[in-house]
Design brief:
By secondary structure, this protein is α+β, with helices and mostly antiparallel strands. The chain contains four helices and six strands; from the N terminus they run H-E-E-E-E-H-E-E-H-H. It has one domain: Yope Regulator, Chain: A, CATH 3.30.1460.70. Helices cover 42% and strands 24% of the residues. Helix 2 runs antiparallel to helix 3 and helix 2 packs parallel to helix 4. It is elongated, with a radius of gyration of 17 Å.
């Protein structure tokens, strides 16, 4: 599958599902806003990459980790990544406390299916909501961080 074919497939899926998106052709990206019970602004972006040939789906959490809790934030992100075992990646910028959820699907030698595109977007959206709830729990003054972190690793 070529990059153009993958791009056309993503566009076809989003159009078929009547998704409203902002298209940036030069970046080969589609940004979409979703309704969420957890977050006010859940925006997910799908990038169609060329070399490596992959579709990458990214979404940012709404809550940043405050500066005085950034080390705990790093431990939380490590626990979230451990739970998902590389399926979903939680990327953490310790300088600003922001967490991004990422997932990719390579298409270089295989045929990409419509359902795989839908699954990527849906899985990332679910992971963002779960991670957002974890951050909020961590930041709640009533939460014992060590117990919370231990519960995530079970």
């Amino acid at each position: 599958m070529t990059t153009q074919e993958a791009f056309d497939l993503v566009k076809h899926v989003l159009d078929a599902d009547q998704m409203k998106y902002h298209l940036e052709e030069e970046k080969r990206s589609f940004s979409m806003a979703f309704r969420s019970e957890v977050m006010e602004n859940l925006v997910t972006t799908v990038f169609v990459m060329d070399g490596p040939d992959a579709i990458v789906v990214l979404s940012n959490l709404g809550t940043a980790i405050p500066e005085d809790r950034r080390v705990e934030g790093a431990l939380l992100v490590n626990a979230l990544n451990y739970r998902r075992m590389g399926i979903i990646n939680h990327l953490y910028d310790i300088s600003d406390g922001r967490i991004t959820v990422a997932m990719n699907q390579f298409y270089d030698s295989s045929r990409l299916e419509e359902d795989a595109v839908r699954s990527l977007v849906g899985t990332v959206n679910e992971a963002v909501e779960r991670a957002e709830l974890s951050v909020r729990t961590m930041l709640d003054p009533a939460t014992d961080f060590t117990e919370f972190l231990t519960s995530l690793l079970k």
